[in-house]
Amino acid sequence: MGKFKAFLKRKNIVISGKRYGIDALSAMAQGLFCSLLIGTIIKTLGQQLGVQFLIDIGQYAFEMAGPAMAVAIGYALKADPMVLFSLVGVGWAANAEGGAGGPLAVLIIAIIAAECGKAVSKETKVDILVTPAVTVLVGVALAKLIAPPIGTAASAFGQLIMMATELQPFWMGIAVSVLVGIALTLPISSAAICAALSLTGLAGGAAVAGCCAQMVGFAVMSFKENRWGGLVSQGLGTSMLQMGNIVKNPRIWIAPTLASAITGPIATCVFHLEMSGAAVSSGMGTCGLVGQIGVYTGWLSDIEAGTKAAITAFDWIGLVLICFVLPAILSSLFGLIERKLGWIKDGDLKL
Prior knowledge:
This protein is mainly alpha-helical. Helices cover 77% and strands 0% of the residues. The protein has 15 helices and no strands.
């Protein structure tokens, strides 16, 4: 056992929840953003401007989601170059075989393939053959064997959440908004979770609401301490910046979480806010305005498909209220009450 542990240490193979559940998952979300998400945005821009060149660029980036996720995961696992490059084919296969639940299949399979590749890397004189062969064979074989059931299970669970939200929009609106919003602020990836579960529709709209409540909520609540820099870095960046402060004083998390519990059901029951765009956008909130762009591209897709007549003023009002106005007002109000109660003190939200 001692020799095996020493081997794992020498190969930098760390079997832990943090390495696989936080580092790899967060990297996967970045890979998704740099391929599927940015590709969708560029393609939509090209469609709106009537520029075929942009449409083509966006489509190419969109189709590289699997390889981008796998390479990002390998990078997070500190894979050697030969392993990292070999993950391109693994990611493509896992995403293709996984179907709607492809991102989850890529996460699991890329981790196993990367660790197997790392285990044999530089152990033989023909490393240039052995390392990519092991990585690709393990990864693609697993993609053929387990990606379809993983994808089916992830998609089914996502469908269950979406069906439950359709049937119980109020209670599920609260649950999805709060849970996905919390995931966004935690050092895990809400975007990757939404992508893995293919979370769209009303449930996707609730997820957007929850993420926006956290990001805009913390940005506005902490304006006294962090001013404009903090407003931008949290409101358009990530509320994860507050995790250190949350550990010191968990009560600062109450205000934006309560705000998400209110905006979630308003999104589902009043404005019927849906994410018809890429599922990864459901977990992005106001980060680079990706959540809002996802909703907008979804509207355009629905119009093109004939399921939506036009984008109305009510649609825009709902989007602005859910994503910006209500999170700011509610979080400020709850934050003020917490300050009056002494639960939040000056400096507790300082970045």
